[in-house]
Amino acid sequence: MALQTVDLEKLKGKVVVLNLWATYCAPCVEELPACWRCRSGCRESKWFAVSTDQDDAVYRKFLVRHNINVLTVRDADQKVNQMYGTVLIPETYIIDRQGVLRRKFIGAQDWTGSEIVDYLNKL
């Protein structure tokens, strides 16, 4: 797996769903499959999962073992957490097409519910 970076500035014009998680966080792991199912129903959004795992080997092994096939990056220094004021994971941020933070979800969510899918598609 190659090291990947994401520049949110380059994604203006798209709705961005930014999910902060870690392999050691049970609610995060439980939430991930629903995130990916929701992603398929949200046509115009870009989904990114940012892991706060310190150990790169544990992170990479988790991705392979759980067949995570969406863009996820590891932020061991927790710079994203600091930027957004994240205290407790999982947290998910919805950023509109102009780059404005529209909504913050704290804790695991049911991403398959029609309310969230409709909200994302309307942005």
Distance between the termini: 32 Å
Indicate the mean pLDDT: 87
Strand content: 15-25%
Largest beta-sheet details: 5 strands, mixed
Dominant shape: globular
Provide a count of the helices: 4
Q: Strand order within the widest sheet?
A: 3-2-1-4-5
Helix content: 25-40%
Count the E strands.
5
Poorly predicted ranges (pLDDT <50, ≥5 residues)? none
How big is the Rg?
14 Å
- Which structural class should the secondary elements be placed in? alpha/beta
Order of helices and strands: EHEHEHEEH
Describe it for me?
- It is a single chain.
- The protein is of the alpha/beta class and 123 residues long.
- 33% of the residues lie in helices and 23% in strands.
- The protein contains four helices and five strands; from the N terminus they run βαβαβαββα.
- It has helices at residues 26-41, 56-65, 79-84, 114-122, and strands at 15-21, 45-51, 72-74, 91-95, 101-106.
- A five-stranded mixed beta sheet has the order 3-2-1-4-5, covered by helices on one side.
- The longest helix is centred in the N-terminal third of the chain and has 16 residues, at 26-41.
- The model has no long low-confidence stretch (mean pLDDT 87).
Furnish the topology, listing elements before pairings.
Blueprint: E1 15-21, H1 26-41, E2 45-51, H2 56-65, E3 72-74, H3 79-84, E4 91-95, E5 101-106, H4 114-122
Parallel strand pairs: 1-2, 2-3
Antiparallel strand pairs: 1-4, 4-5
Keywords:
alpha/beta; five-stranded mixed β-sheet; 33% helix; 123 residues; single chain
Short description, anyone?
Strand 4 and strand 5 form a beta hairpin. With 123 residues, this protein is of the alpha/beta class.
